[in-house]
Amino acid sequence: MIDQKLLEILACPIDKQPLEDHGDYLVNPRLNKAYPVQDGIPVLLVEEAQDWPVK
């Protein structure tokens, strides 16, 4: 889980909109993209994004 204050300032690197916390991923539901959270650190790199839902 990402700290709520941190989540409020994080944004999708593609459309600059808010992300949703889904445990191991931060998700942009508008683009159906998921960014991994590794060891509690969000990896907000476009090349690391996966299609949501992650299989």
From TrEMBL:
A Pfam family of this chain: Trm112p
GO CC, alphabetical: cytosol
UniProt cross-references to SUPFAM superfamilies, sorted A to Z: Trm112p-like (SSF158997)
Family as reported in the entry's similarity comment: Belongs to the UPF0434 family.
Family matches, as PANTHER family: PROTEIN PREY, MITOCHONDRIAL, ZGC:162634
Protein name listed in UniProt: UPF0434 protein L8U58_09085
